[in-house]
Amino acid sequence: MTTSPIIEFEIEDSRKPIWTPLLSLLRSRKFILTLAALLVEGAIYLEPSFEPLRGQVAAVIALLTTFLVGSIAYEDRASIAADANQIEPQEINDLVLEIVSQVIDEINQKE
Asked: Could you state, in order of their start, the residue ranges of all structural domains in the chain?
């Protein structure tokens, strides 16, 4: 049996194939964030007082959600890479900054 660190419930090893992906979704921070954004956007579209600003508010919520989901994905990827390579997350950030600065330097040299 395994337990989820976020939602406390036990998963049997003999679980059915359809439940495994659903339980994994419920434990996903990205899924919960996206679901919350959809609920907020739905509430905005149902509230008549937001009618003049519906498009702008929906765009801001979608942008923030996209940014947050991307940040979570980056954090997850950095964590997986750190576990696989035993590299500290700060070292990964330093490597990314070094690569970006090299790319910017090459672009500046071409101009």
From this structure: 2-110
